[in-house]
Amino acid sequence: GYYNHREALPARRFVGGKVPLGLKRKGLRIVVTGGAGFVGSHLVDRLLARGDSVIVVDNFFTGKKENVMHHFGNPNFELIRHDVVEPLLLEVDQIYHLACPASPVHYKFNPIKTIKTNVVGTLNMLGLAKRVGARFLLTSTSEVYGDPLQHPQVETYWGNVNPIGVRSCYDEGKRTAETLAMDYHRGAHVEVRIARIFNTYGPRMCIDDGRVVSNFVAQALRKEPMTVYGDGKQTRSFQYVSDLVEGLMRLMEGEHVGPFNLGNPGEFTMLELAKVVQETIEPNARIEFRPNTEDDPHKRKPDITKAKELLGWEPKISLRQGLPLMVSDFRKRISGDHSSSDA
Ligand code: NAD
Ligand code: UDP
Ligand code: UDP
Protein backbone atom coordinates (compact mmCIF):
# COMPACT_ATOMS: atom_id res chain seq x y z
CA GLY A 1 0.00 0.00 0.00
CA TYR A 2 0.93 3.60 -0.51
CA TYR A 3 0.43 4.42 3.15
CA ASN A 4 2.30 2.73 5.96
CA HIS A 5 -0.31 1.24 8.25
CA ARG A 6 2.00 1.31 11.26
CA GLU A 7 2.25 5.06 11.04
CA ALA A 8 -1.49 5.43 11.44
CA LEU A 9 -2.79 6.77 14.72
CA PRO A 10 -5.65 4.79 16.23
CA ALA A 11 -8.47 7.25 15.79
CA ARG A 12 -11.21 5.59 17.80
CA ARG A 13 -9.84 6.75 21.11
CA PHE A 14 -12.23 5.02 23.47
CA VAL A 15 -13.34 1.80 21.87
CA GLY A 16 -16.95 0.95 22.56
CA GLY A 17 -17.51 4.41 24.01
CA LYS A 18 -15.92 3.36 27.33
CA VAL A 19 -14.21 6.44 28.69
CA PRO A 20 -11.44 5.84 31.24
CA LEU A 21 -12.36 6.97 34.77
CA GLY A 22 -11.63 10.61 35.44
CA LEU A 23 -11.81 11.61 31.78
CA LYS A 24 -14.78 13.48 30.35
CA ARG A 25 -16.18 11.98 27.13
CA LYS A 26 -14.65 13.97 24.32
CA GLY A 27 -16.64 14.60 21.18
CA LEU A 28 -15.92 12.45 18.16
CA ARG A 29 -13.93 13.66 15.17
CA ILE A 30 -16.14 13.20 12.16
CA VAL A 31 -15.59 13.75 8.44
CA VAL A 32 -18.60 14.52 6.28
CA THR A 33 -17.72 14.29 2.57
CA GLY A 34 -20.21 16.29 0.53
CA GLY A 35 -20.99 18.21 3.72
CA ALA A 36 -21.61 21.49 1.88
CA GLY A 37 -24.48 19.90 -0.04
CA PHE A 38 -28.16 19.60 0.73
CA VAL A 39 -28.27 16.51 2.99
CA GLY A 40 -24.69 16.91 4.25
CA SER A 41 -25.19 20.42 5.61
CA HIS A 42 -28.23 19.33 7.66
CA LEU A 43 -26.22 16.39 9.02
CA VAL A 44 -23.35 18.74 9.95
CA ASP A 45 -25.78 20.95 11.90
CA ARG A 46 -26.91 17.96 13.99
CA LEU A 47 -23.39 16.60 14.62
CA LEU A 48 -22.06 19.97 15.77
CA ALA A 49 -25.12 20.53 17.96
CA ARG A 50 -24.35 17.18 19.61
CA GLY A 51 -20.86 18.42 20.51
CA ASP A 52 -18.73 16.59 17.96
CA SER A 53 -15.97 18.05 15.79
CA VAL A 54 -16.78 18.07 12.11
CA ILE A 55 -14.54 18.32 9.06
CA VAL A 56 -16.42 18.96 5.84
CA VAL A 57 -14.67 17.78 2.67
CA ASP A 58 -16.30 19.12 -0.48
CA ASN A 59 -15.29 20.15 -4.01
CA PHE A 60 -18.29 22.53 -4.30
CA PHE A 61 -19.60 20.90 -7.48
CA THR A 62 -23.18 21.16 -6.25
CA GLY A 63 -22.49 22.19 -2.66
CA LYS A 64 -22.25 25.79 -1.47
CA LYS A 65 -20.33 27.59 1.27
CA GLU A 66 -23.61 29.30 2.13
CA ASN A 67 -24.95 25.97 3.40
CA VAL A 68 -22.34 25.75 6.18
CA MET A 69 -21.31 29.40 6.55
CA HIS A 70 -23.19 29.72 9.84
CA HIS A 71 -20.53 27.46 11.40
CA PHE A 72 -17.54 29.58 10.35
CA GLY A 73 -15.81 30.67 13.56
CA ASN A 74 -16.89 27.55 15.44
CA PRO A 75 -13.63 25.91 16.57
CA ASN A 76 -15.24 22.47 16.20
CA PHE A 77 -15.86 23.08 12.48
CA GLU A 78 -13.45 22.85 9.53
CA LEU A 79 -14.11 23.16 5.81
CA ILE A 80 -11.68 21.64 3.28
CA ARG A 81 -11.98 22.16 -0.47
CA HIS A 82 -10.99 18.75 -1.76
CA ASP A 83 -12.08 16.31 -4.43
CA VAL A 84 -12.53 12.77 -3.02
CA VAL A 85 -11.18 11.32 -6.28
CA GLU A 86 -7.79 12.37 -4.85
CA PRO A 87 -6.33 10.65 -1.75
CA LEU A 88 -6.82 12.38 1.60
CA LEU A 89 -5.00 12.05 4.92
CA LEU A 90 -6.89 12.83 8.13
CA GLU A 91 -7.24 11.34 11.62
CA VAL A 92 -10.90 10.79 12.46
CA ASP A 93 -13.32 8.46 14.26
CA GLN A 94 -16.19 8.40 11.76
CA ILE A 95 -16.65 9.08 8.05
CA TYR A 96 -20.03 9.96 6.60
CA HIS A 97 -19.40 9.56 2.86
CA LEU A 98 -21.96 11.64 0.94
CA ALA A 99 -19.81 13.23 -1.78
CA CYS A 100 -21.59 12.63 -5.11
CA PRO A 101 -24.08 14.68 -7.10
CA ALA A 102 -27.59 13.36 -6.44
CA SER A 103 -29.83 15.08 -8.98
CA PRO A 104 -30.06 13.40 -12.41
CA VAL A 105 -29.35 16.75 -14.09
CA HIS A 106 -26.10 17.09 -12.12
CA TYR A 107 -24.91 13.50 -12.30
CA LYS A 108 -25.54 13.28 -16.06
CA PHE A 109 -23.65 16.57 -16.63
CA ASN A 110 -20.29 14.76 -16.51
CA PRO A 111 -21.00 11.03 -16.21
CA ILE A 112 -17.32 10.02 -16.20
CA LYS A 113 -16.68 12.31 -13.26
CA THR A 114 -19.77 10.85 -11.53
CA ILE A 115 -18.58 7.28 -11.80
CA LYS A 116 -15.04 8.26 -10.75
CA THR A 117 -16.49 9.98 -7.69
CA ASN A 118 -18.53 6.89 -6.82
CA VAL A 119 -15.77 4.37 -7.41
CA VAL A 120 -12.40 6.07 -6.84
CA GLY A 121 -13.84 8.53 -4.30
CA THR A 122 -15.40 5.73 -2.26
CA LEU A 123 -12.22 3.64 -2.55
CA ASN A 124 -10.17 6.52 -1.15
CA MET A 125 -12.51 7.13 1.75
CA LEU A 126 -12.54 3.39 2.56
CA GLY A 127 -8.74 3.40 2.40
CA LEU A 128 -8.78 6.29 4.87
CA ALA A 129 -11.24 4.43 7.13
CA LYS A 130 -9.00 1.36 7.06
CA ARG A 131 -5.83 3.32 7.82
CA VAL A 132 -7.22 5.12 10.88
CA GLY A 133 -9.77 2.53 12.04
CA ALA A 134 -12.73 4.85 11.49
CA ARG A 135 -16.32 3.74 11.05
CA PHE A 136 -17.56 4.42 7.51
CA LEU A 137 -21.11 5.18 6.36
CA LEU A 138 -22.00 5.11 2.66
CA THR A 139 -25.01 7.03 1.38
CA SER A 140 -26.20 4.72 -1.35
CA THR A 141 -29.51 5.13 -3.10
CA SER A 142 -32.83 3.57 -4.02
CA GLU A 143 -31.49 3.79 -7.59
CA VAL A 144 -29.61 0.55 -6.94
CA TYR A 145 -33.04 -1.08 -7.47
CA GLY A 146 -33.20 0.49 -10.96
CA ASP A 147 -36.63 0.20 -12.56
CA PRO A 148 -37.79 -2.26 -9.90
CA LEU A 149 -39.76 -5.40 -10.69
CA GLN A 150 -40.56 -5.82 -7.01
CA HIS A 151 -42.81 -3.36 -5.17
CA PRO A 152 -42.27 -2.03 -2.57
CA GLN A 153 -38.50 -2.55 -2.57
CA VAL A 154 -36.97 -4.70 0.18
CA GLU A 155 -33.21 -4.65 0.88
CA THR A 156 -32.92 -8.27 -0.30
CA TYR A 157 -34.07 -7.32 -3.82
CA TRP A 158 -31.12 -7.20 -6.24
CA GLY A 159 -32.61 -4.68 -8.62
CA ASN A 160 -33.22 -4.19 -12.31
CA VAL A 161 -30.55 -1.81 -13.56
CA ASN A 162 -29.42 -0.93 -17.08
CA PRO A 163 -25.60 -1.14 -17.00
CA ILE A 164 -25.06 0.92 -20.17
CA GLY A 165 -27.68 3.65 -19.88
CA VAL A 166 -27.48 7.37 -19.18
CA ARG A 167 -28.25 6.83 -15.47
CA SER A 168 -25.69 4.03 -15.07
CA CYS A 169 -22.85 6.31 -13.94
CA TYR A 170 -24.95 6.90 -10.83
CA ASP A 171 -26.85 3.59 -10.34
CA GLU A 172 -23.96 1.31 -11.17
CA GLY A 173 -21.52 3.70 -9.48
CA LYS A 174 -23.44 3.39 -6.22
CA ARG A 175 -23.77 -0.38 -6.65
CA THR A 176 -19.98 -0.60 -7.00
CA ALA A 177 -19.58 1.68 -3.98
CA GLU A 178 -21.70 -0.77 -1.97
CA THR A 179 -19.53 -3.65 -3.22
CA LEU A 180 -16.36 -1.80 -2.20
CA ALA A 181 -17.81 -1.09 1.25
CA MET A 182 -18.69 -4.76 1.78
CA ASP A 183 -15.28 -5.93 0.54
CA TYR A 184 -13.46 -3.53 2.90
CA HIS A 185 -15.75 -4.77 5.66
CA ARG A 186 -15.09 -8.46 4.98
CA GLY A 187 -11.49 -8.15 3.82
CA ALA A 188 -10.05 -5.29 5.87
CA HIS A 189 -12.46 -5.33 8.85
CA VAL A 190 -13.61 -1.76 8.33
CA GLU A 191 -16.81 -1.04 10.29
CA VAL A 192 -19.14 -0.06 7.48
CA ARG A 193 -22.76 1.11 7.35
CA ILE A 194 -24.83 1.29 4.17
CA ALA A 195 -27.91 3.48 3.73
CA ARG A 196 -30.11 3.27 0.63
CA ILE A 197 -31.72 6.67 0.51
CA PHE A 198 -35.03 7.31 -1.25
CA ASN A 199 -36.00 10.71 -2.72
CA THR A 200 -35.43 13.39 -0.08
CA TYR A 201 -36.45 17.05 -0.08
CA GLY A 202 -36.19 20.08 2.18
CA PRO A 203 -34.59 23.49 2.68
CA ARG A 204 -31.20 24.12 0.97
CA MET A 205 -31.95 21.96 -2.06
CA CYS A 206 -30.49 23.62 -5.14
CA ILE A 207 -33.34 25.62 -6.62
CA ASP A 208 -32.58 24.62 -10.19
CA ASP A 209 -31.26 21.10 -9.69
CA GLY A 210 -34.01 19.61 -11.84
CA ARG A 211 -35.40 17.25 -9.23
CA VAL A 212 -39.14 17.05 -9.18
CA VAL A 213 -39.94 18.59 -5.79
CA SER A 214 -37.55 21.51 -6.24
CA ASN A 215 -38.80 22.04 -9.81
CA PHE A 216 -42.51 22.08 -8.90
CA VAL A 217 -42.00 24.33 -5.86
CA ALA A 218 -39.79 26.81 -7.74
CA GLN A 219 -42.15 26.81 -10.73
CA ALA A 220 -45.24 27.41 -8.59
CA LEU A 221 -43.50 30.23 -6.70
CA ARG A 222 -42.36 31.84 -9.96
CA LYS A 223 -45.87 31.46 -11.38
CA GLU A 224 -44.58 29.20 -14.14
CA PRO A 225 -46.33 25.95 -15.10
CA MET A 226 -45.21 22.81 -13.29
CA THR A 227 -43.48 20.47 -15.75
CA VAL A 228 -44.78 16.91 -15.47
CA TYR A 229 -42.62 14.43 -17.40
CA GLY A 230 -44.40 11.62 -19.24
CA ASP A 231 -47.97 10.89 -18.19
CA GLY A 232 -47.23 11.81 -14.56
CA LYS A 233 -48.39 8.40 -13.32
CA GLN A 234 -44.91 7.26 -12.27
CA THR A 235 -44.51 7.20 -8.49
CA ARG A 236 -41.92 8.25 -5.91
CA SER A 237 -41.83 8.33 -2.12
CA PHE A 238 -40.70 11.64 -0.65
CA GLN A 239 -38.82 11.92 2.63
CA TYR A 240 -38.21 15.11 4.60
CA VAL A 241 -34.52 15.78 5.22
CA SER A 242 -34.62 15.79 9.05
CA ASP A 243 -36.07 12.26 9.03
CA LEU A 244 -33.19 11.13 6.82
CA VAL A 245 -30.53 12.74 9.01
CA GLU A 246 -31.98 11.02 12.09
CA GLY A 247 -31.85 7.69 10.22
CA LEU A 248 -28.24 8.21 9.10
CA MET A 249 -27.10 9.00 12.64
CA ARG A 250 -28.92 5.99 14.12
CA LEU A 251 -27.37 3.78 11.48
CA MET A 252 -23.86 5.11 12.16
CA GLU A 253 -24.23 4.69 15.94
CA GLY A 254 -25.93 1.28 15.74
CA GLU A 255 -24.42 -2.17 15.37
CA HIS A 256 -25.84 -3.15 11.98
CA VAL A 257 -24.02 -2.96 8.66
CA GLY A 258 -27.13 -2.81 6.49
CA PRO A 259 -27.99 -2.05 3.78
CA PHE A 260 -30.99 -0.17 5.17
CA ASN A 261 -33.69 1.55 3.16
CA LEU A 262 -34.17 5.08 4.50
CA GLY A 263 -37.24 6.65 2.98
CA ASN A 264 -40.83 7.62 3.58
CA PRO A 265 -43.22 4.88 2.43
CA GLY A 266 -45.87 7.45 1.43
CA GLU A 267 -46.12 6.95 -2.34
CA PHE A 268 -47.27 9.66 -4.77
CA THR A 269 -47.70 9.91 -8.52
CA MET A 270 -46.13 13.06 -10.01
CA LEU A 271 -49.67 14.33 -10.68
CA GLU A 272 -50.54 13.84 -7.00
CA LEU A 273 -47.35 15.65 -6.01
CA ALA A 274 -48.35 18.55 -8.29
CA LYS A 275 -51.70 18.67 -6.47
CA VAL A 276 -50.02 18.88 -3.05
CA VAL A 277 -47.83 21.72 -4.35
CA GLN A 278 -50.97 23.50 -5.62
CA GLU A 279 -52.60 23.10 -2.18
CA THR A 280 -49.49 24.43 -0.45
CA ILE A 281 -48.50 27.32 -2.73
CA GLU A 282 -50.92 28.29 -5.42
CA PRO A 283 -54.26 26.58 -6.15
CA ASN A 284 -54.21 27.96 -9.70
CA ALA A 285 -50.70 26.71 -10.55
CA ARG A 286 -50.85 25.13 -14.00
CA ILE A 287 -49.45 21.80 -15.18
CA GLU A 288 -47.57 21.30 -18.45
CA PHE A 289 -46.69 17.87 -19.82
CA ARG A 290 -43.18 17.20 -21.19
CA PRO A 291 -41.62 14.10 -22.73
CA ASN A 292 -40.11 11.82 -20.11
CA THR A 293 -36.38 11.22 -19.69
CA GLU A 294 -34.66 7.97 -20.65
CA ASP A 295 -34.76 4.99 -18.26
CA ASP A 296 -37.06 6.76 -15.81
CA PRO A 297 -38.08 4.22 -13.11
CA HIS A 298 -41.87 3.69 -13.10
CA LYS A 299 -42.33 3.33 -9.37
CA ARG A 300 -40.45 3.48 -6.15
CA LYS A 301 -41.48 2.91 -2.55
CA PRO A 302 -39.33 1.69 0.32
CA ASP A 303 -40.13 -1.22 2.56
CA ILE A 304 -38.68 0.09 5.83
CA THR A 305 -39.43 -2.90 8.07
CA LYS A 306 -35.71 -3.56 8.58
CA ALA A 307 -34.89 -0.01 9.71
CA LYS A 308 -37.92 0.01 12.01
CA GLU A 309 -36.92 -3.24 13.66
CA LEU A 310 -33.15 -2.86 13.90
CA LEU A 311 -32.68 0.92 14.15
CA GLY A 312 -35.98 1.86 15.81
CA TRP A 313 -36.35 4.43 13.05
CA GLU A 314 -39.23 5.61 10.94
CA PRO A 315 -40.00 8.92 9.27
CA LYS A 316 -42.17 11.36 11.23
CA ILE A 317 -42.89 14.12 8.70
CA SER A 318 -45.47 13.63 5.96
CA LEU A 319 -45.25 15.36 2.58
CA ARG A 320 -48.03 17.78 3.55
CA GLN A 321 -46.13 18.72 6.74
CA GLY A 322 -42.67 18.91 5.18
CA LEU A 323 -43.46 20.76 1.98
CA PRO A 324 -44.37 24.09 3.66
CA LEU A 325 -40.99 24.05 5.49
CA MET A 326 -39.19 23.79 2.18
CA VAL A 327 -41.45 26.36 0.53
CA SER A 328 -40.60 29.07 3.04
CA ASP A 329 -36.87 28.54 2.37
CA PHE A 330 -37.40 28.59 -1.42
CA ARG A 331 -39.61 31.67 -1.14
CA LYS A 332 -36.83 33.58 0.66
CA ARG A 333 -34.18 32.54 -1.86
CA ILE A 334 -36.31 33.07 -4.96
CA SER A 335 -37.45 36.52 -3.91
CA GLY A 336 -33.91 37.76 -4.44
CA ASP A 337 -32.35 37.18 -1.04
CA HIS A 338 -29.71 34.62 -1.95
CA SER A 339 -28.37 34.13 1.55
CA SER A 340 -28.51 30.60 2.89
CA SER A 341 -31.40 29.40 4.95
CA ASP A 342 -30.98 28.81 8.63
CA ALA A 343 -33.70 26.18 8.64
P1 NAD B 1 -25.94 17.38 -3.20
O1 NAD B 1 -25.60 17.43 -4.62
O2 NAD B 1 -26.66 18.53 -2.58
O3 NAD B 1 -24.65 17.10 -2.31
C1 NAD B 1 -23.53 16.38 -2.78
C2 NAD B 1 -22.28 17.10 -2.27
O4 NAD B 1 -21.13 16.36 -2.69
C3 NAD B 1 -22.14 18.50 -2.83
O5 NAD B 1 -21.80 19.39 -1.79
C4 NAD B 1 -21.01 18.37 -3.85
O6 NAD B 1 -20.30 19.57 -4.05
C5 NAD B 1 -20.18 17.27 -3.23
N1 NAD B 1 -19.36 16.52 -4.19
C6 NAD B 1 -19.74 15.98 -5.37
N2 NAD B 1 -18.70 15.37 -5.97
C7 NAD B 1 -17.63 15.51 -5.14
C8 NAD B 1 -16.26 15.11 -5.21
N3 NAD B 1 -15.78 14.43 -6.26
N4 NAD B 1 -15.44 15.45 -4.18
C9 NAD B 1 -15.90 16.15 -3.12
N5 NAD B 1 -17.19 16.56 -3.01
C10 NAD B 1 -18.04 16.25 -4.00
O7 NAD B 1 -26.79 16.04 -2.98
P2 NAD B 1 -27.56 15.50 -1.70
O8 NAD B 1 -28.99 15.41 -2.05
O9 NAD B 1 -27.17 16.23 -0.48
O10 NAD B 1 -27.01 14.01 -1.65
C11 NAD B 1 -26.03 13.60 -0.71
C12 NAD B 1 -25.77 12.11 -0.86
O11 NAD B 1 -26.99 11.37 -0.64
C13 NAD B 1 -25.26 11.70 -2.25
O12 NAD B 1 -24.29 10.69 -2.10
C14 NAD B 1 -26.49 11.12 -2.92
O13 NAD B 1 -26.14 10.17 -3.88
C15 NAD B 1 -27.23 10.51 -1.75
N6 NAD B 1 -28.67 10.41 -2.03
C16 NAD B 1 -29.45 11.53 -2.01
C17 NAD B 1 -30.81 11.42 -2.32
C18 NAD B 1 -31.73 12.62 -2.30
O14 NAD B 1 -32.90 12.48 -2.64
N7 NAD B 1 -31.28 13.79 -1.91
C19 NAD B 1 -31.35 10.17 -2.65
C20 NAD B 1 -30.51 9.06 -2.69
C21 NAD B 1 -29.17 9.20 -2.36
N1 UDP C 1 -6.18 6.41 0.87
C1 UDP C 1 -6.47 7.71 1.24
N2 UDP C 1 -6.23 8.08 2.52
C2 UDP C 1 -5.71 7.25 3.46
C3 UDP C 1 -5.43 5.93 3.08
C4 UDP C 1 -5.68 5.53 1.78
O1 UDP C 1 -6.95 8.49 0.45
O2 UDP C 1 -5.54 7.68 4.60
C5 UDP C 1 -6.43 5.97 -0.51
C6 UDP C 1 -5.21 5.39 -1.19
O3 UDP C 1 -4.57 6.40 -1.94
C7 UDP C 1 -5.75 4.31 -2.08
C8 UDP C 1 -7.12 3.98 -1.53
O4 UDP C 1 -7.37 4.90 -0.46
O5 UDP C 1 -5.93 4.80 -3.40
C9 UDP C 1 -7.25 2.58 -1.02
O6 UDP C 1 -6.33 2.43 0.04
P1 UDP C 1 -5.83 0.99 0.50
O7 UDP C 1 -4.81 1.19 1.56
O8 UDP C 1 -7.00 0.15 0.84
O9 UDP C 1 -5.23 0.37 -0.83
P2 UDP C 1 -3.77 0.44 -1.45
O10 UDP C 1 -3.20 1.79 -1.17
O11 UDP C 1 -3.03 -0.64 -0.75
O12 UDP C 1 -3.99 0.18 -2.90
N1 UDP D 1 -40.10 14.78 -12.94
C1 UDP D 1 -41.16 15.53 -13.42
N2 UDP D 1 -40.99 16.87 -13.61
C2 UDP D 1 -39.83 17.51 -13.33
C3 UDP D 1 -38.73 16.75 -12.82
C4 UDP D 1 -38.91 15.39 -12.66
O1 UDP D 1 -42.26 14.99 -13.68
O2 UDP D 1 -39.76 18.73 -13.51
C5 UDP D 1 -40.29 13.34 -12.71
C6 UDP D 1 -39.20 12.43 -13.26
O3 UDP D 1 -39.51 12.05 -14.59
C7 UDP D 1 -39.25 11.24 -12.32
C8 UDP D 1 -39.70 11.85 -10.99
O4 UDP D 1 -40.24 13.13 -11.31
O5 UDP D 1 -40.24 10.32 -12.74
C9 UDP D 1 -38.58 12.01 -9.99
O6 UDP D 1 -37.50 12.65 -10.62
P1 UDP D 1 -36.24 13.24 -9.84
O7 UDP D 1 -35.32 13.77 -10.85
O8 UDP D 1 -36.70 14.16 -8.76
O9 UDP D 1 -35.60 12.00 -9.06
P2 UDP D 1 -35.29 10.48 -9.48
O10 UDP D 1 -36.14 9.69 -8.54
O11 UDP D 1 -35.66 10.25 -10.90
O12 UDP D 1 -33.85 10.34 -9.24
TrEMBL record:
Query: One GO CC annotation, please?
Result: Golgi cisterna membrane
Q: How does it sit in the membrane?
A: Single-pass type II membrane protein
Q: What is its EC number?
A: 4.1.1.35
Q: Which UniProt keywords apply?
A: Decarboxylase, Golgi apparatus, Lyase, Membrane, NAD, Transmembrane, Transmembrane helix
The pathway to which it is assigned is: Nucleotide-sugar biosynthesis; UDP-alpha-D-xylose biosynthesis; UDP-alpha-D-xylose from UDP-alpha-D-glucuronate: step 1/1
Q: Where in the cell is it found?
A: Golgi apparatus, Golgi stack membrane
Residue span, NAD(P)-binding domain: 32-324
Please cite one Gene Ontology biological process associated with this protein: D-xylose metabolic process
Which co-factors does it depend on? Answer: NAD(+)
The name under which this protein is listed is UDP-glucuronate decarboxylase
The organism is Phoenix dactylifera (Date palm)
Q: Which gene encodes it?
A: LOC103707234
Within the intact protein, the region shown is 93 to 435 of 445
